[in-house]
């Protein structure tokens, strides 16, 4: 009798094993830790958001260059001379500059460098962020300190990859170089590797407080909203609002440093303090905020898209049996409708 019971138990155990293996094989996300999933989610979100806001970044860069090339001067003149007006009932309701005077393709100059630089930068940033966060949480540090310190550490580490790609990207956007590959080669040949790291100091001075403000403010607002409703997950549009507001606040606070960064990366050999002093003497306080409108729009949209996509990819990378019913709130219906529609159409055509 004892032998039968033991053999029956063994058979039951071995009967369960294949089903467990099948579950793991069908859901590869089970093999990933939370930290790895967060790194992948952050990288995907950052890359997608960067591609979306690149045209605004191009316009911002061209407005901030203090010594523009001849081609950029012609672009600036054409933009001023060819405004876009919108009339309703013979009354002008919109008057703005025609930023697309050379066509949509023109404002996507440098996109290759932006994407190629964003992927390794995001991986290093989020890997550093998650590692520091885990270390500080293990030491029971306050939540605000944890996020601020982790975001700052991620910004410092990722800057050593981001700055070279940013330098090349800005020069392509400002018509100083033809493309990112030839631009990188020309900078290294004429200025050495050091030339790629022009603007490192203002980048760190800008990114550390900017990213810290974004993450800290977003986390604070998100927890506040969730707490008021009993910790229910936020909907997609709520992530957009909170992320956009956080980004706009951070962009406004760090605008002078962004101006100095772009100026130095586009060829100025002056230190940060002299760049800021020259702008003040020539244009007054407004000189420190050149390109502020597109930058605030850029950062607000970037933040809103990033935080929404980050939460979306975190939900998608969860193992299926760990997903809550509320995770679907992070999945925009238009995303699924478009994906299903394209998939069905391609399947039929094949």
Explain this structure.
By secondary structure, the chain is mainly alpha-helical. The chain has helices at about 1-25, 35-65, 70-80, 110-140, 145-175, 180-190, 195, 200-230, 235-255, 255-265, 270-285, 290-315, 335-350, and strands at about 85-90, 90-95. Residues about 1-15, about 20-25 and about 335-350 have low confidence and may be disordered.
Shape: globular
Radius of gyration: 25 Å
Order of helices and strands: HHHEEHHHHHHHHHH
Share of residues in helices: over 70%
- What is the residue-averaged pLDDT? 79
Number of helices: 13
> Strand order within the widest sheet?
1-2
The main β sheet shows up as:
2 strands, antiparallel
Alpha-beta content class: mainly alpha
What's the total count of β strands? 2
Summarize the structure.
The chain is mainly α and 350 residues long.
Using brief descriptors, characterize the structure shown:
mainly alpha; globular; 73% helix; 3% strand; 350 residues; two-stranded antiparallel sheet; 13 helices
């Amino acid at each position: 009798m004892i032998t039968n019971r033991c053999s029956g138990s063994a058979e039951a155990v071995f009967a369960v094993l294949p089903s467990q293996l099948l579950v793991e094989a069908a859901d590869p996300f089970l093999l990933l830790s939370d930290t790895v999933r967060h790194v992948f989610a952050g990288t995907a979100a950052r890359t997608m958001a960067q591609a979306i806001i690149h045209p605004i970044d191009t316009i911002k860069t061209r407005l901030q260059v203090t010594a523009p090339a001849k081609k950029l001067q012609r672009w600036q003149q054409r933009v001023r001379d060819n405004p876009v007006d919108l009339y309703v009932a013979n009354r002008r309701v919109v008057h703005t500059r025609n930023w697309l005077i050379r066509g949509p393709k023109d404002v996507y100059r440098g996109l290759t460098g932006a994407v190629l630089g964003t992927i390794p930068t995001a991986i290093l940033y989020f890997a550093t962020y998650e590692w520091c966060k885990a270390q500080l949480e293990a030491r029971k540090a306050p939540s605000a300190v944890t996020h601020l310190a982790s975001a700052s550490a991620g910004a410092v580490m990722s800057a050593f990859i981001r700055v070279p790609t940013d330098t090349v990207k800005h020069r392509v956007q400002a018509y100083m170089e033809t493309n990112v590959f030839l631009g990188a080669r020309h900078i290294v040949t004429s200025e050495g590797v050091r030339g790629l790291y022009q603007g490192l100091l203002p980048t760190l001075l800008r990114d550390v407080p900017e990213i810290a403000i974004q993450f800290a403010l977003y986390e604070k607002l998100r927890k506040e909203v969730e707490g008021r409703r009993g910790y229910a997950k936020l909907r997609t549009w709520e992530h957009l609002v909170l992320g956009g507001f956080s980004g706009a606040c951070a962009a406004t606070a760090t605008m002078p440093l962004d101006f100095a960064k772009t100026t130095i990366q586009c060829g100025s050999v002056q230190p940060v303090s002299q760049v800021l002093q020259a702008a003040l003497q020539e244009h007054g306080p407004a000189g420190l905020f050149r390109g502020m409108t597109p930058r605030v729009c850029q950062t607000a949209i970037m933040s809103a898209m990033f935080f929404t996509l980050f939460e979306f990819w975190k939900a998608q990378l969860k193992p299926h049996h760990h997903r809550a019913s509320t995770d679907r709130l992070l999945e925009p219906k238009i995303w699924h409708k478009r994906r299903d529609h394209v998939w069905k159409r391609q399947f039929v055509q094949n």
